[in-house]
């Protein structure tokens, strides 16, 4: 007969863990809280370092991009800055150009161009001294010594020549005027037929001056002889007679109307210009 062991006969007993004391619980809670805090601190610090590193990299890149701007390509048509004042270029030294004229004086190149545009140049461009001598010689003669013993004043001759050609003896105008006194072909023919023993050429500046003064003399004689009550003598200091002669020189005697002592002309601007040159011409 089997005998049971004392152990087998003992009943099962459940063992319960003893409850921690209040002091132990407090210690465990503090330890757990410290562990969590440490984990949070470590994790947060790592994230902070990572964010700061990334932010610094981006900021640095942005700062580099902001600080560096690629230079613009220069434009082919770019104009210089208006604030930049260019260095003054040296003035060219005028060089003396040879003249084809026989012996013009220095003042010949300073004379003005005649009114309008010359069609061409022909003949000799006489110097101022040569022109003056030719005009003086022409003005100092009487062309009708028996019937009309008078001379055309020099200042009137100078002014007409200056107004017509600017004292340029080689000018041929588009309307047919020739030379110093801008003589028309009909005028030349009229003077050669009525006055001159031999024909004078308007292309010779000396003969041109003579023909021009002859025409002024003939116009003066014409107005005095046809208007004796208005013009009793050959006196070109009479402004009415002077007006008639100047106007007719440019436009012909038919452009002048004399009525009751009054002289009316179609070209008053021309007359006024010539009268002004008689006292203020650079040629005087």
Verbal overview:
With 284 residues, the chain is mainly alpha-helical. The chain has a domain at 112-280: Lysozyme. 46% of the residues lie in helices and 4% in strands. The protein contains 8 helices and 4 strands. It has helices at residues 6-9, 22-67, 128-139, 154-165, 185-194, 205-226, 239-251, 268-280, and strands spanning 120-121, 171-172, 256-259, 262-265. The protein has a two-stranded antiparallel sheet with strand order 1-2. A two-stranded antiparallel ribbon has the order 3-4. β3 and β4 form a beta hairpin. α3 runs parallel beside α6 (205-226). It is globular, with a radius of gyration of 59 Å. The termini are far apart.
Topology:
Elements: H1 6-9, H2 22-67, E1 120-121, H3 128-139, H4 154-165, E2 171-172, H5 185-194, H6 205-226, H7 239-251, E3 256-259, E4 262-265, H8 268-280
Antiparallel strand pairs: 1-2, 3-4
Helix pairs in contact: 3-6, 4-8, 6-7, 7-8
List keywords for this structure.
single chain, 284 residues, mainly alpha, Lysozyme, two-stranded antiparallel ribbon, two-stranded antiparallel sheet, 8 helices, 4% strand, disordered N terminus
% residues in beta strands = under 5%
Question: What's the CATH class label of the domain at 112-280?
Answer: Mainly Alpha
User: Which architecture of the domain at 112-280 per CATH?
Assistant: Orthogonal Bundle
**What's the gyration radius in Å?**
59 Å
Strand order of the largest sheet: 1-2
So how many helices? 8
Mean pLDDT: 75
Please give the number of β-strands: 4
CATH fold type of the domain at 112-280: Lysozyme
Helix percent band: 40-55%
Shape: globular
The run of helices and strands is HHEHHEHHHEEH
């Amino acid at each position: 007969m089997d005998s049971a062991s004392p152990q087998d006969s003992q009943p099962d007993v459940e063992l319960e863990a003893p409850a921690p004391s209040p002091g132990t619980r407090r210690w465990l809670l503090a330890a757990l809280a410290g562990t969590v805090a440490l984990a949070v601190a470590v994790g947060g610090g790592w994230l902070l370092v990572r964010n700061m590193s990334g932010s610094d990299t981006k900021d640095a890149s942005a700062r580099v991009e902001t600080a560096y701007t690629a230079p613009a390509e220069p434009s082919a048509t770019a104009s210089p800055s208006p604030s930049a004042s260019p260095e003054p270029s040296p003035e060219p030294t005028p060089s003396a150009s040879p003249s084809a004229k026989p012996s013009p004086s220095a003042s010949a190149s300073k004379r003005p161009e005649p009114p309008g545009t010359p069609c061409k140049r022909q003949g000799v461009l006489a110097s101022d001294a040569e022109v003056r001598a030719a005009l003086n010689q022409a003005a100092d003669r009487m062309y009708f010594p028996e019937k009309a013993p008078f001379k055309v004043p020099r200042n009137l001759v100078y002014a007409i020549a200056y107004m017509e050609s600017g004292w340029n003896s080689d000018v041929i105008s588009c309307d047919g005027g020739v030379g110093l006194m801008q003589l028309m072909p009909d005028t030349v023919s009229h003077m050669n037929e009525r006055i001159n023993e031999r024909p004078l050429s308007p292309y010779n500046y000396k003969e041109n001056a003579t023909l021009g003064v002859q025409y002024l003399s003939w116009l003066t004689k014409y107005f005095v002889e046809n208007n004796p009550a208005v013009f009793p003598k050959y006196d070109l200091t009479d402004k009415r007679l002077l007006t008639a002669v100047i106007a007719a020189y440019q436009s012909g005697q038919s452009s002048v109307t004399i009525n009751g002592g009054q002289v009316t002309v179609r070209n008053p601007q021309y007359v006024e210009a010539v009268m002004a040159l008689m006292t203020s011409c650079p040629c005087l």
